[in-house]
Write a structure and sequence with these properties.
1 helix; mainly alpha; transmembrane helix; transmembrane; rod-shaped; about 90% helix; membrane
Amino acid sequence: MPDDFWANALFSVTPTILIGGIFWLAMRSILRADRSERAAYTRIEEEERAKLAARD
């Protein structure tokens, strides 16, 4: 363990920052996947509605 005050402070904060960064990346990827899935579902829904309207 470092004996210097600032080194100890940095040593103490680094794991929290790293875990926060990993959490941020995970949440970002989940939200982007949800957004793209909703867009794909909307596109498919529109195509199905157009097919149904064309059939009538």
